[in-house]
Amino acid sequence: MKKITEEHKKVIKDRASLVKAMAHPVRLCVLDKLINEGEKNVTEIVDCMDVTQSNLSQHLSKLRDLGIVEARKEGNLIYYSVKRKDVISIVKVIMRGAE
After folding, report:
1. What whole-number distance in Å separates Cα of residue 62 and Cα of residue 81?
2. What is the chain's pLDDT, residue by residue, as a tens digit (99 residues)?
3. Residues 58-61: contacts with CB within 8 Å, 24+ apart?
4. What is the Cα–Cα distance from 48 to 61, expressed in whole angstroms?
5. What's the pTM value of the predicted model, to 2 decimals?
């Protein structure tokens, strides 16, 4: 049996962290909405799982810190979109059949 290298272990840990971050219901809802409807601001996605705007901002901050979503400021509003193509693929697989 082939031994797992330290580099491969790091990749596994990174991917596990990514999946863990996406596994929260609010974050999964946000990602699903952004993927299906495109770029949105906090007001446009606050209906995900009936959270407060403050709580949603915390979840978006976590996703942004992990490089999953990116933010673009326009005036007083910040618009979010999914940055990583691998995340788009993962969410689509997870949500398949949920429509």
Report:
1. 14
2. 788 999 999 999 999 999 999 999 999 999 999 999 999 999 999 999 999 999 999 999 999 999 999 999 999 999 999 999 999 999 999 998 655
3. 59/24, 59/26, 59/27, 59/30, 60/30
4. 15
5. 0.88
